[in-house]
Design brief:
about 15% helix; about 350 residues; eleven-stranded parallel sheet; disordered N terminus; mainly beta; Pectate Lyase C-like; 27 strands; 5 helices
Length: about 350
């Protein structure tokens, strides 16, 4: 194994997780792989900015490379982030669209920072606020230590996404509380690893997570209070929701699949393996004091010890194929109009 930078202990874990998960899942997921050359070809990019932590590129900083792209950019550009751990906060502002952040693999290229805050956005290691951003093969981490339960010390976002048409392929996200702030817009996550303990996928975006690997970290301070998702949807007209397709959920703690942050919260797990880390109730309306009649907390054709129907929350749904068809289609996020590749 090649030498890794001294600050990259989390990348070693990422490599091990990557190898274990892919060997375990290869037998039931023989599909097209959206690799870097395919994405580059589909996007038709002919300009590349190289970032190399050792000084063998155009920049040594990811943010410096992004800052070099003209405002209101209208042509796709690759920001190739070579292997290494880049300890910095990164922000892609709304006037920097059409960026392809291309790493060398989620076990080789990482962006990490350590910050907690009373403001989720302020804590984020990476903020994506521009439309049309594609990301491949990068690990993102907020390594802030776990603080006191239910306080601002826990808000340590790895990635904040608040723009239209953003997609991640073969990436990983690490934190404990509030790992992935998937706030607004149409998004697509393919073959990504997401790790956390409390509300670690949250926001109000319209998102498909295809073949996700979700790892639950045990929170010793709590007794089954964490949730994987905390989705906010305020009315029936909003199209947003979190859709998880053909993935797996496992880990060392006990959590809910989701909790409602709004009266129309919508989260669906489809054809997903659920380990015993999912508690029997499956879902919670903790912090939502209103009616549960319009909440869509559903499962379709899930399996595993955590998928047992007995004991599920009374408002949760065991869905039929007809119920989920519109959400399982890439058309749910209008993906055929903007994604370079979908699976």
């Amino acid at each position: 194994m090649p030498n890794l930078p001294s600050s990259s202990s989390f990348l070693l874990s990422a490599i091990l997780i990557f190898c274990i998960s892919h060997s375990a899942l290869a037998t039931n997921h023989a599909e097209t792989i959206a690799d870097s050359p395919m994405l580059t070809q589909k996007l038709g990019i002919n300009r590349t900015i190289k970032v190399d932590i050792n000084g063998n590129g155009d920049f040594t900083s990811v943010q410096a490379a992004i800052d070099s792209i003209p405002e209101d950019n209208s042509q796709w550009v690759i920001v190739h982030i070579r292997k290494g751990v880049y300890r910095e906060k990164v922000r892609i502002r709304s006037n920097k669209p059409y960026i392809f952040l291309r790493g060398n693999g989620r076990g080789r290229t990482g962006i990490t920072w350590s910050q907690s805050s009373t403001d989720n956005v302020a804590s984020a290691t990476v903020r994506i606020e521009a439309h049309d951003v594609i990301v491949f093969g990068i690990s993102f981490q907020n390594e802030a230590p776990t603080g006191r339960a239910y306080t601002s010390q826990n808000q340590s976002v790895a990635v904040y996404v608040a723009a239209e048409k953003v997609a991640f392929y073969h990436c990983s996200f690490y934190s404990t509380h509030n790992t992935l702030f998937d706030q607004k817009g149409r998004h697509y996550y393919a073959n990504c690893y997401i790790q956390g303990s409390i509300d670690f996928i949250f926001g109000r975006a319209r998102t498909i997570f295809y073949h996700p690997e979700i790892f639950v970290v045990d929170d010793k301070r709590l007794t089954v209070q964490g949730s994987i998702t905390a989705h906010n949807r305020e009315n029936a007209e909003e199209l947003n929701g979190y859709i998880f397709i053909k993935g797996m959920v496992y880990g060392t703690g006990a959590v809910y699949l989701g909790r409602a942050k709004g009266p129309y919260s919508r989260v669906i797990f489809s054809e997903t393996y659920l380990s015993k880390t999912i508690v029997p109730a499956g879902w919670t309306n903790w912090s939502h004091s209103g009616s549960t009649k319009n909440i869509v907390h559903g499962e379709y054709n899930c399996r595993g010890p955590g998928a047992v129907r007995e004991g599920r929350a009374p408002w949760s749904m065991q869905l039929t194929k007809k119920d989920v068809e519109q959400f399982l289609s890439i058309d749910y996020i209008d993906g055929k109009n903007w994604l370079p590749v979908w699976l």
